[in-house]
Amino acid sequence: MATATDLSAAASAAADSAAAEAEAAKISAVLQTAKATLAAVEEQVAACEGPVSSSAAEVEKASAALAEVKAAAEEVESVARNTKGKEMARNCVSNASEAQRQASESVRACADAHSECDKYVAEISSLIAKIESCYADASSSAALKNAKELEAQDAAKAAAAQKEAEEKAAAAKAAQAAAEQKAAEEAEARAKAEAEEAERKAAADAEEAARKSEEEAAEKKRKEEEAAEAAKREEEKAKAAQEAAEMKAMHEVEATEETNFEGEAGSETAQDGEGGSARQQKQMGDIHQKKKPKKPSEPSQAEVERQQQEAEMAELREFWTILLRGLVVMKYATTGSKPQERVLWLDRSGARLYLDHRKRFDSKGNEKGLYLRDISQVRSGCNTVAFKKSQAHDPPTDKCFSLIGTERTLDMEMPTAFVRERVVAKFNLLLKALSPVPQRKLSSDDASLMAHFQEVLIRGMEVVVHTSTTFASHKSTKNVLWLAQGSRPENGDTAPRLYLATKKRKTNTGKEKGLWLDDMAECRPGINSDVFFKAPDNVTTNIANKCFSIIGSETTFDLEVKSPEARNAVVHRFQLWLQQIQKQAEHLRNR
Q: Domain limits of the chain?
């Protein structure tokens, strides 16, 4: 496409060509004038050549006359001896000599004039040669300018043709873009329909799976009950058979006893018979007393845990289906602005939660959200930075909760307190399923360990801080992590706070970069945070066993210490400390 610069260059080339032609015409006029001057000089030189030649003839004539005069004088002197004749002859000779001198001077003057004329003619000829050279250069320059003008015109024509071609290409591209947009919209509509159908199908499959699971559980329970009934019947049969065998054995014993004691006296026999009958009755009573039916045994601990896990998995499947469909919540911002209605949903991969104005079916992964595995804590109530900055909007404590992670914290309000409790319980079940390893419980031996660690933090601990954002590359700097008291901005209360800076400060106001100790949600070992995830692999590979993250709703500290052993010791003490803080907070809530 031709630009304004190209058109300006073409106009400038045309103007330069016109100026060159005018200069050439001017030089041509000067050249003609010089040629006319040269002709006039040549005529003057020719005019000088005539007098010079005539003066030479006169000199010769004068020389001949002088010779004749000398000859006549000699004759007169020889003939006439009077003074008057001599004077006349002497005058004649003198006149002839003067005439010869004048003729010689005239010859010299003419010769000098001729020499000057030749010099002038040579200079004029040199000037004419230079003018002709300039004229030739001007002519060639004019020709070059004409060529450039033609070239500029050709360039302008080519630019116009290119512009027309580009306009046609742009029109074709616009048509293609429109077609592609239409195709994309149709594809998006199809994808949306397919996604909705997939979600409906997934929901139906989940419901069907839950129904089948419930049916299988009911069938299994029925079979277990039938097996228990059959076992009970078998046990009763075995019991009856055993009693019959015992009765038969007792009869055989009695018969043997009667045979052995037949010869004894009648009174004694009668007494023994009565005593034997009493003994038999007593023994049979003892047997029936010992063989009372057992009560049904209670289920074992493993069976109870298995049933509990099955119930929790059924609840998680139901909650999973709800998250796929989406929940309408009120979102609170860390700026303290008015809460806005948003949709919280789980993507189809089941890995990331999104919070936006509307549910999207084509999430690319770079929208604002939080990975499920990045959630550190599900915190009920209004106990985060965003809620404390939004006190002007009076957030209801019984309806609010927060999902705290390293990437961000999602602060939300549910429609009712009951829904909040159900959602928080389901998210806690989800965290339990994602992190099944429980933490070690506190013991009495941990008190001295945490007291020593507190002293270390009060003095300060050298760490390497890792930072990385969407707009800035990963970098690491040496800092100091220390524990000190600070005043809360919302109410002025004094509370312990972790600070992080290049140099430890003697006084702290609570407004510096840091993390309130009761806001700490997790101390996570390794490089499992958003900052380390964005860092290059060649940076994190060699330091993975020396890194950890302290996570809270206000910020996340991504730190590195000198050795893996130091990292493990620090993380262990922070985790014990966190358990103590959470235990104290729970105790305060339950009072």
A: 4-174, 323-434, 446-590
Which CATH entry fits the domain spanning 323-434: 3.40.50.2300, 2.30.29.30, 1.10.340.30, 3.20.20.70? 2.30.29.30
pLDDT category of residue 72 using cuts at 50, 70 and 90: low
**Which residue has 């139906």 as its token pair?**
204
**Gap between the Cα atoms of 489 and 176, Å rounded:** 58
pLDDT tens digit sequence for 153-176: 878 888 888 888 888 888 888 888
pLDDT digits (tens, 9 = 90+) for 476-518: 999 999 999 988 887 888 889 999 999 988 887 767 889 999 8
* C-alpha to C-alpha distance for 400 and 423, rounded to whole angstroms: 11
The answer to whether 353 touches 345, Cβ cutoff 8 Å, is yes
Q: Which residue has the tokens 């018979």?
A: 273
To the question of pTM greater than 0.90 for the whole model, the response is: no
Can you identify the CATH homologous superfamily of domain 4-174? Helix Hairpins (1.10.287.620)
What single letter denotes the amino acid at residue 419? V
Cα 464 to Cα 75, 492, 543, distances in angstroms: 142, 31, 11
Q: Which CATH number fits domain 446-590: 1.10.3720.10, 3.90.180.10, 2.30.29.30, 3.30.70.890?
A: 2.30.29.30
Q: What is the pLDDT of residues 27-38, one digit of tens each?
A: 566 567 656 665
Residue of 250, 37, 251 lying closest to 131 (CA atoms): 37
Q: What is the DSSP letter of 513?
A: S
